[in-house]
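[Help] Beginner question about ligand-bound structures

Sorry if this is basic. My supervisor gave me a protein sequence and a SMILES string for adenosine-5'-triphosphate and asked me to "get the holo structure". I don't really know what that means in practice or what format the answer should be in. Inputs are pasted below exactly as I got them.
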Amino acid sequence: MKIKGGIFEKEKIIRDNSQHAIEICSVFKCFGNVKAVNGLTFNVEYGEIFGLLGTNGAGKTTTIRMLTTLTKPTEGKLYVAGYSVDKNPVDVKRHIGVVPQQNNLERELTGKENLVLHALLHKMPKNVREQRIEELLSYVGLDDWADKRVQNYSGGMARRLLIARALVHNPPILFLDEPTIGLDPQTRRKIWDLIQLMNRAGVTVMLTTHYIEEAERLCHRVGIVDHGELVALGSPEELKTSLGNYCVEFLNKEGTERHFFPTRQEAYSYSEAYDCDTAIRRTNLEDVFVEVTGREEG
Ligand SMILES: Nc1ncnc2c1ncn2[C@@H]1O[C@H](COP(=O)(O)OP(=O)(O)OP(=O)(O)O)[C@@H](O)[C@H]1O
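Answer (accepted):
No worries, everyone starts somewhere. Holo just means with the ligand present. The predicted complex, written as structure tokens, is below.
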């Protein structure tokens, strides 16, 4: 995958009085009796890769759908690029790219035609859009597939095309809902590289994931959501440190028991008191996830 110079050069964003790329202020979303989102408040800063991590049904997709103008909150306010999602949805749409969880590409069209269609929806002039599309197809490594129909693409290729499509109109903020769901490990790594390259080129990224490894490897900051509530927020390092950087782990009759300590020495002293086999290791984000949600997997 190649980065061509200048493809992420951005127009200057005129923001109201916001310093944040994304602001979520006391947001609730109910579907009947189900509180899909239950009082979320946090910001995403310009330049970040921010990950919303949670189990299935935690409220991640609903949050992305509200931020990207697809559904309205029951209560609360959302701002993207300084614009109110409620009052200025058209401005919000101009400033965002969205990679949905489901592949909604036009399968009968070629990769290039899909991008042209998106550019036309954003009223991009022909000379600008042609160059941009060529550059993006090369950027996501699909130049050789540009004129082939999407129905012949693999899952990983379709995901790369979805990312290219989201970037056609040069948005400063990109939302990705479960960007690597269902992909094999090699393709997943390629998508991670692509997200990191985009971010280095200046794009602010907010993604959802239920893969803890994805959040730990990719995200500058992570918000862990459970039953629609934010239960932890910080960089992976901050979250691990807050729990204790060293873990003593051993098996008892009920299952695996874990205890956390700030230093290896304290962990070692604790483990010495036990007769059974104990392991001392560095704390990881999965430990944080289990502690704050009470669940074993993302
Ligand atoms: N349109 C809808 N109508 C009714 N309930 C909904 C609707 N959309 C979401 N929900 C419910 O809201 C809760 C949160 O769903 P959401 O899709 O936001 O979770 P998620 O964290 O994105 O999970 P997943 O990874 O499975 O998509 C779930 O209980 C879900 O069943």
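A couple of things worth pointing out: Residues 1-6, 9-15 have pLDDT under 50 and may be disordered. DSSP finds ten helices and 13 strands in the chain. Feel free to follow up in the thread.
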